[in-house]
Design goal:
Elements: E1 2-6, H1 16-24, H2 26-34, E2 51-56, H3 63-73, E3 78-81, H4 90-103, E4 106-111, H5 114-123, E5 128-131
Parallel strand pairs: 1-2, 1-4, 2-3, 4-5
The chain binds magnesium ion.
Length: 136
């Protein structure tokens, strides 16, 4: 079985206040992403036969910083960036994430954003979508 994980708020921690600030002040943006702390270890969810992928809706320009972080904490992990942005309509983000989830034959997917979970559940009933985290 392949399990899918969102990155921000699932694999690494998130700080909404700092994130919004970093979007306004571009010089602190790379600091924000470099300093994320691991939150969930995906390997804790896997049996020896399972696999995992990471899907993030970070903007594409954050690819190299994202790669550095994943290489450091989860070397060799398979990951995808859907190039949206934090403020994109959750319906569009869900649509883009779903394409990858279906292509990669993911059976369970974790995301911290309840709007994205809601949209994914509307669009697909073959994958189990689970919200993690305390977001409202
Ligand atoms: Mg997230």
């Amino acid at each position: 079985m392949t399990i899918g994980f969102d990155l921000d708020g699932i694999i690494c921690d998130i700080n909404i206040f700092e994130l919004v600030l970093s979007e306004k002040l571009s010089f602190v943006e790379s600091y924000y992403y470099k300093e994320r702390k691991p939150l969930l270890n995906p390997y804790m969810f896997l049996t020896n036969d399972d696999d995992f992928i990471i899907i993030t809706a970070r903007e594409k320009r954050l690819s190299s910083i994202t790669k550095q972080w994943i290489d450091k904490f989860l070397p060799g992990a398979k990951w995808f960036i859907v190039d949206t942005g934090y403020n994109e309509d959750p319906r569009e983000t869900a649509e883009k994430k779903l394409k990858i989830l279906l292509r990669e034959k993911v059976e369970v997917y974790f995301d911290d954003n309840p709007d994205i979970i809601k949209e994914l559940r509307k669009k697909c009933n073959t994958i189990k979508f689970i919200q993690f985290g305390g977001r409202l």
